[in-house]
Specification:
Shape: elongated
Number of helices: 4
Distance between the termini: 33 Å
Helix content: 25-40%
Strand content: 15-25%
Strand order of the largest sheet: 3-2-4-6
Order of helices and strands: HEEEHEEHHE
Radius of gyration: 17 Å
Structural class: alpha+beta
Length: 126
């Protein structure tokens, strides 16, 4: 998979699929931490992964002066277009994965949203 990202789990998509919900994928890309570009040296201040204890990480995160990030709201995914079964969840997970990466996963999804553009905006947390 791209950028070292793991595939999305399918179990959390069972409820929105069953309820025929609309999923709005959102991508958050961190740009800087305390006015320094995100790098290997400071990324652990904002990213929580593997065996990190969440609470100590969260307190460190709250102590930062500023975090700059770009938030991208991707086009919606309508769950009624997928079957409510294991294969449907797998397809939905793959399509969500591609949306978060800013890609169109299938021809039917790209045609569904002709002319629909992502909304981009910068958020500065201080």
């Amino acid at each position: 998979m791209a950028n070292g990202w793991l595939p999305f789990q399918t179990a959390p998509l069972a409820a929105p699929l069953r309820n025929r919900s609309i999923i709005v994928p959102v991508t958050l890309v961190y740009k800087s931490v305390d006015d320094k570009a995100v790098s290997k040296a400071n990324r652990d201040l904002i990213y929580c992964y593997d065996e990190m204890d969440f609470l100590p990480h969260f307190w460190k995160l709250l102590s930062l002066r500023s975090i700059e990030a770009v938030v991208t709201v991707q086009p919606k995914i309508e769950c009624f277009r997928y079957r409510d079964n294991s294969a449907g969840r797998k397809k939905l997970a793959l399509d969500c994965y591609h949306r978060v990466l800013g890609e169109r996963a299938t021809m039917d999804l790209s045609q569904q949203e002709k002319g629909s553009a992502s909304m981009k905006g910068q958020v500065r947390l201080a």
